[in-house]
From TrEMBL, chain A:
InterPro entries: CA109-like, OPRN-like. One of its GO terms (cellular component) is mitochondrion. This is Uncharacterized protein. The lineage of its organism: Eukaryota, Viridiplantae, Streptophyta, Embryophyta, Tracheophyta.
Automatic annotation (TrEMBL), chain B:
Residues 24-34 have a biased composition (Low complexity). This is Uncharacterized protein. It comes from the Eukaryota. PANTHER family: CYCLIN-DEPENDENT KINASE 2-INTERACTING PROTEIN (PTHR15827:SF2). Residues 1-34 are annotated as: Disordered. It comes from Olea europaea subsp. europaea.
Amino acid sequence: MEAVVKKYQQKYRKVKDEMGSWEELQARLLSQFSNASSIVQRLQVIHKSRNYGGLKCVEGIEGAVLAKQMESLQTILLSMNKTLEDFHGVVLSIEKIVCDSRQLVKGGSAQLATKQLKQQIGVKPSVADCLDGLRLLEEMHQSEYHLKLSVVSALPEIALKLSGGDGDLDALRQLLVDQPNIPREEVQLIFDMVFPEEIC
Amino acid sequence: MEPRESHFQSPIVTKPPFFTPQQSSSPSSAPAPSSAIRLWKPAAQRNVRNQWSKLLALFQDWCSSSSSARSHAISLVNSFLSQKYMNGMDLGVLSDMPNIRTKACQKLFKQQELYRCKLLSCYKDMVAIVTRMVNSSRSMRCYLKGSRTSPLAQFSCSSQNDNDSGDAGGIPVFTFWSIAAFEELASEVVQMFTSELNLKRLLVLELLSISDERVLQEIELHWSDEFYEGEFDDLSTCNLYLEEACEPVFPSLRSSRSSTSSMQSKHQADSDVLQVYLTTWLAEVNIDRCRLDEIFAIVGEEMHVNLS
C-alpha cells in the first residue's frame, strides 16, 4: 500500500514540474499582454489625425503609423497564440500524468478494494485522496487554459473598437493575473496532503 | 578560362539602372585583362563583405541609439507633463511646505533641459550612423591602383583612372551579382534610414520645442536651424540638405514621394499629441524590418557569410 502512495508522490512531483513550466508561460503571457494592451491603448490616440501636431504636414503619416502599430500588434497576438499552445502542452502533460496514475490502481497486480483505496497509514494520504487531488489539479489547469483562450481572443475585438477599451483591458489583465481557476491555497492544501512529511 | 571571358563581356550581366548613369551608358568599359580580374576578385570580395558587415553593425547601432533617444524623449515628455499639471496636483501633506510647487517646477524644468541635451546627443549619433551608412553604400567599388601592367596589383576605394569603373566591367563579384547589384540593395537599405532620420529630425524639433507657456524659451528652434555644429554637412552627405534653399529636405514617407506643404510653426503640445510623437518615434514607419532582414539574408547568402 505504501508503495502505491510512493508512486503517487512521484506523479505529484511530475505535476509540480509541469506547474513550474506553467508559471514561466504565465510570466511570458503577462508581458505579451501588457505589450499588446499598450498598443491597443495607443491606437485610440493615433487614429485621430488631430493628434499629430507638427507631424500633420507629413503626408500619409497617420496611416503609416497606424499600419505599423497594427503590424506590431499582429505579431504580438501571434506570439500570444504560440504561448497558449504551450499552455495547452502543459495541460496535455498533466492529463497524461493523471491518466497514467489511474492505471496504477486499475492495472496493478491486485485490484484494490474500495476499502484499501481509502485506507490511510499514519500521516500518509490514502490512494483515493491522491487520485482526487490529481484530478482536481488537472481540472484547474484545464479550465484556466480555456479562460486564457477566451481572454486572448477578446483582445483583437477591443483593438478594433478603438475607443474606451481601457477598462476592459484592465479587467482582462486582472483575470490573467489572478488565474481564478487555480486557487493557490487549494493547490497548497493538496500538496500538503500528499507530502505530509514536508510540512514544517 | 574561355567561358568566363565571354561571360563578363556579354550584355546579359545584371546591371540595374542605378547610381552613376555615365557608367551604365557604357557598360563593361574596357574589360580588364584576366590576370587583373583574378587579382581584383578577392580584393573586391573583401571590400564588399566589409561594407556589408559595416552596414549591419551600423543598423544595430541605429537601433540602440534610437531606443535610448526614445527613452530620453519619454522622460522629457513626462517631466514636461508633470510640470504642466503641477498646479492641479494633490501634494497631500507636502502642500504645506513653502514654495513647494515653484521648487518642484524649477526642478522639473532643469530635468527637461537635461533630457533635451540627451535627446539631441542621441540624434547627433543617429545622424553620424546614417552618414556612415551612406558612405559605406558608396564604397562598394574596388579600383585598381597604379598601373595596369604592374605586377603588384593594389586596390583602392577611389578611382584613379577614368576607364576604371571599379566593378571590373560588371562581372559577378561572388557567384551571381555585380557590384551594381550590391550597390542597389545597399541604397535600398540606406534610403530607409535616411528617410527615417529625416522624419526623426522633425520629431526632435517638435520634442525640443515643447515647453511651458509660462516659461519663456530663450531660443526657439526652427526647421532651417542647424541643431548642432556640422549637422548640415552630414545631412548633405545623406542627400537630406537643400543647398539652394539652405535648409534640410522636408520629411516625407518613403512610400509617397510628393513633397508636402510648408511647416506650421508652434503646436499645442497636449498629452495626446506627445503620445503620437513618441509612438511615431517607436514605429519607424520608413524602416521595413522584414525587407531589411530579407536583404541582409540574401546578401549574406551571396557573399557566403552570415549577416544576422
